[in-house]
Each structure stands twice: as structure tokens, then as C-alpha cells.
């Protein structure tokens, strides 16, 4: 009986390891897909700074960076 139990638990452990290794074979996000939306938002902030002072432009960029940081945190935890 102990040999059967040991064999069962060994097979169960091997099965769990194989399953855990096969869950994700590639990264959740590709670098190309993450880089493009961010570049577009930076360009939008640069365009919105035309005709305003340096302090106002810095405030807008900081706000955009904080908002971008907040919303991208959801994507980093799969």
C-alpha cells in the first residue's frame, strides 16, 4: 500500500509541475504593443503645450505621466 501511495503522490507532483510550466509560454505583453500608445500620448501632450507658459506645460506633462502610471499598473499584474 505504501508503494502505491508513494507512486500516486510522485505522479501527482510531476503532473502539477508539468501543468505549472505549461501555463504561460510567452509574455503577456509585447514591447511593440506597449510602446506605441505611450508615444502617441506624449505627442498629444506636446501639442497641447503650444501657446502656454513653461510652468503650465510642466504641470500638464506631470499630470499626464501620473495618469499614465496609474492606468498602466493594471496591465503589469496578469
TrEMBL record:
The keyword Secreted applies. It comes from the Eukaryota. Sulfation is important for activity and for the binding to a putative membrane receptor. PSK-alpha is produced by endopeptidase digestion. PSK-beta is produced from PSK-alpha by exopeptidase digestion. One of its GO terms (molecular function) is growth factor activity. GO terms for biological process: cell differentiation; cell population proliferation. One of its GO terms (cellular component) is extracellular region. Keywords: Developmental protein, Differentiation, Growth factor, Secreted, Signal, Sulfation. InterPro entries: Phytosulfokine (IPR009438). It is found in: Secreted. Residues 1-20 form the signal peptide. Promotes plant cell differentiation, organogenesis and somatic embryogenesis as well as cell proliferation. Belongs to the phytosulfokine family. This is Phytosulfokine.
Amino acid at each position: 500500500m505504501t508503494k502505491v501511495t508513494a507512486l500516486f503522490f510522485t505522479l501527482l507532483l510531476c503532473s502539477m509541475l508539468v501543468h505549472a510550466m505549461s501555463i504561460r509560454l510567452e509574455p503577456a505583453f509585447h514591447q511593440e504593443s506597449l510602446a506605441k500608445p505611450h508615444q502617441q500620448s506624449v505627442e498629444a501632450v506636446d501639442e497641447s503645450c503650444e501657446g502656454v507658459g513653461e510652468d503650465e506645460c510642466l504641470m500638464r506633462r506631470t499630470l499626464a505621466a501620473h495618469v499614465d502610471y496609474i492606468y498602466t499598473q493594471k496591465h503589469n499584474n496578469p
